[in-house]
């Protein structure tokens, strides 16, 4: 389908422990390398990933307007997960009890909420893939214990 919108500024990454997210499990050191990731986003990773996402997203302009009106793009978080040797992320989303919060006048169906949440998750995944494939060449510091049982 695709979406014809301007690329927003990349999110500013703040110091936050990803383990505080309800849906995250990060094991490893606490050096999440946000400053370096933020530089990569500013140096083109965000533009490339966002462009790839807009080429394939199922969001229409009205749904994307809800995303921007609510400032969801700015609430993305990306961090280095050294244990898994990957870029982790937290995608913002709309809560399940969206009706009780009267979040946006154009937000009127669970289908729209679900679509926005799914597409923001997809954007986060694409950003992580672009960062890992084309920008990050860090070696993981994680060494598995030597006394693991054979399976």
Automatic annotation (TrEMBL):
Q: Which InterPro entries match?
A: DUF7992 (IPR058305)
Residue ranges of the DUF7992 domain? Answer: 3-151
Domain of life, per lineage? Archaea
A Pfam family found in this protein is DUF7992
Name this protein carries in UniProt:
DUF7992 domain-containing protein
Organism, per UniProt? Halorientalis regularis
